[in-house]
Predict the 3D structure of the following.
Amino acid sequence: MITGKNYIGSQLKAGGTKTVKTFNPQLNIENPWVFTEATTEEIEEAVALANQAFTSYKKCSGLEKAQFLNAIADEILALGDELLVQYCSESGFPRGRAEGERGRMIGQLRSFAVMLTEGSWVQATIDTAIPDRQPAPKEDLRKMLVPLGPIVVFGSSNFPFAFSTAGGDTASALASGCPVIVKSHSMHIGTGEMVASAIIKAAQKTNMPEGVFSNLVGGGRTLGTSLVKHPLVKGVGFTGSISGGRALCDLAAQRPEPIPVFAEMGSVNPVVLLPEALKVNSQKWAAAYAGSITLGAGQFCTNPGLLLAVKGAELNDFETELTTAIEKIEPLCMLHSTMQADFEKGIAEKESQKGVSKVAQFKGEVLPNYGRQTILKVSGEEFLKNESLSHEVFGPFSILVECEDEVQLIQIINKLDGQLTGTIISEEKELQKHQAVIFALQNRVGRLIFNGVPTGVEVCASMLHGGPYPASSDSRFTAVGTHAVYRWVRPLSYQNWPDDLLPAELQNNNPLQISRTVNNKLTLAGCD
Amino acid sequence: MITGKNYIGSQLKAGGTKTVKTFNPQLNIENPWVFTEATTEEIEEAVALANQAFTSYKKCSGLEKAQFLNAIADEILALGDELLVQYCSESGFPRGRAEGERGRMIGQLRSFAVMLTEGSWVQATIDTAIPDRQPAPKEDLRKMLVPLGPIVVFGSSNFPFAFSTAGGDTASALASGCPVIVKSHSMHIGTGEMVASAIIKAAQKTNMPEGVFSNLVGGGRTLGTSLVKHPLVKGVGFTGSISGGRALCDLAAQRPEPIPVFAEMGSVNPVVLLPEALKVNSQKWAAAYAGSITLGAGQFCTNPGLLLAVKGAELNDFETELTTAIEKIEPLCMLHSTMQADFEKGIAEKESQKGVSKVAQFKGEVLPNYGRQTILKVSGEEFLKNESLSHEVFGPFSILVECEDEVQLIQIINKLDGQLTGTIISEEKELQKHQAVIFALQNRVGRLIFNGVPTGVEVCASMLHGGPYPASSDSRFTAVGTHAVYRWVRPLSYQNWPDDLLPAELQNNNPLQISRTVNNKLTLAGCD
């Protein structure tokens, strides 16, 4: 079923000579499929097709786009077991994760379809005319959100389904009315091709314009660079490292016409463990965190990589419990041998820093490419002195910082880079006393969690997956949940426009029955 | 009343040695006041104070912030006539414009106060917990908008009131909960100081934290550069030229932590004149456009600088009518002698291009610094060949492009840079036939106008003042209207947070009675 080719719109093409393969980390061997990188001409063709598709795709109704997204979900499910097998062979993830993540991808597509069917997401805002206003008449003004244009999506390594070919970025961009060109992630190109085939089938079945979706293969940075610099591309979605994301942001900012890049990048997701909570529940929290740190071999953006607490008997107990729990968990296979090597290197680097000691590490034998979960420890004083200790190690790793007191704890939080999440583990009674900690944390994060773990990112309207730089490149948007659509749209105002030529969303009698703000009041009613 | 000093929070300081003066273009002389530029230490102090103020200002309730904004409006009005005299002496604008623009500034401040008092603008979104959901429980998630941090506002030359010290950028940033540091525009520093004094008085009367507002004077680019590069600054608002705005965007993008810049820059605001409309109403439209082109000496971002039409008898008639109307209007004083010189230079440059001829120009004598309104003409073919013809000339100027046919007209629209506005002058009947023109225009603009003029930017929720680059640096936001607040905020999610520690906007019983999205339904009801 794998052709090894690029989807330029619905056409499978492989005019190039450069090829790449993927890797099976479980078997520690190269996969058999050979993928051909997109040529300059193929890249050009995909972008031109996307731009051409935009002129008709942006006019599709919400219902038409919803049918398209639901059809994508259906076609992905129709790929059945074969897709799951492909996913496992290119990620090292177990079957259960494959099924779970497919469910998440399908759920995301359908949640955007629900949003489109309901229709109010366009934020229609109407101020009707007041012809006799003094000193000047008030004109009729009506505003709604419209799509930006062709969007480039960079697949992520750690979510071959939910944040790649038909993942959240693609689903939200297609929902907004923007055509999408995916740069397939080099670790799971076969999985990407299969998912792309489902999108193409869905586009054909629902009569979407040719070029509404393309899927390109590229080995080095050339493909990504060409796409981000292309004048017809109007936005970029990325999930990955800080260096990769920043490079794209810089490229986009340097264009003659700068374009928005939403890059979801690094995060160590600080967790503050307050003393009362550890006193009452140290075993429970140690078990929860051992689980969260090792979930999916720690390869989550929201992995808790930094545990902060004030020194004392409670913390000592927690440390003992965490050690026991961590050492008991069976390590998992990482996404790639290079990831596993980077993980080991990252730990070694941290361990070599002044004042850092090892708290816990899985002690048994592990297979190649498996990540041995590790907890290190350092004093608050040393942590404050050494910025490198606050950088992410991607994998099942966390560093425990033993603070002198709460003043130092807050100092550390204030010095942290922007984060996706911040967690407080606390008894409800004691929380009032620690308001200063909460306010400090709130300033640095996109999501505040009370008595839980940061892993497990719910897909819903109230989710914020993003945060102050470098957690994401623009903290004003989210990468997860239906509000992710707002990254790819801009408002357009119509002044004194004839009613029958207005988009349905803005017409007087509100034919779509959406919630609109009319003269500063939210209403389903019509206007005139 | 003018001290010539900087407001570092509430303190008037002038520790520096460099001074600047402003210019009275009506009298063609330097104004008497001497203003001292802010020193490096004063800049540092203003930013540090703003950052300190942020910790308490962001906790202010909507009502408290509304009181502050209303107090600013009151204090500005309390400055009375003296402020209007100051404004006129530093802008060359007549008294009527001063009063009108003051009204706009006051109206903007009060409209944000109304928005804050109502409170729903924070887009509270709640998804309640489902503890027994399979395979995993759903956590309680609640999201709302929170302020970014200290914002730097660059005053504009052409709106000393409405887009400067207490203009739309300042009002929206203060409404969002962000402290503001204004870089006073060098053409009207005295006006800026007076308005700043009103803001400081209002802050003191309503118990706002010291440093919530500062007003700095700077001659060259040093002040602006220092502010945009400062690590504690979290966003920038700018109104001005493309080169100035782009320079700030580049600086902000190159920071270790890039920050959002909303720059409202250049626009020629294309106007498409369809033949039936010219046939029926050429005199009416010629008069309207002569008025719009010369309004405020053409010194508006939405000045119609590009008139597009297909050649023919109707266009010839319009040209004759426009010439008559343009030549009758008395020229007005421009903002500064340098502006007037740039205006003349701009016209001369355009006139020297191949195929360009003069249609109309005011023929009488004019005083120094007055702008002689001018209309040039060129064929569609030459216009397409010469990109420089599409660039803005700031002042009472427009270029009429005589297109061969509608195909060429659409080609021209597609080649245009992003624009604030696009206008169609048309009989309603003929509009259906010209859908392709509308769709082309829609792609290039932030606001589409039917049978009107682009000047006159209504301040309301449905206004979009912004547009594809370079009309603005980020087409996803507006600079005018209450939605301008969304430039300075980011969403923050709370997961499983104790109800009594949540912000009031997210608490179960909806104490503020704001519209919230609860489990995907808009409601005023509480939840649990």
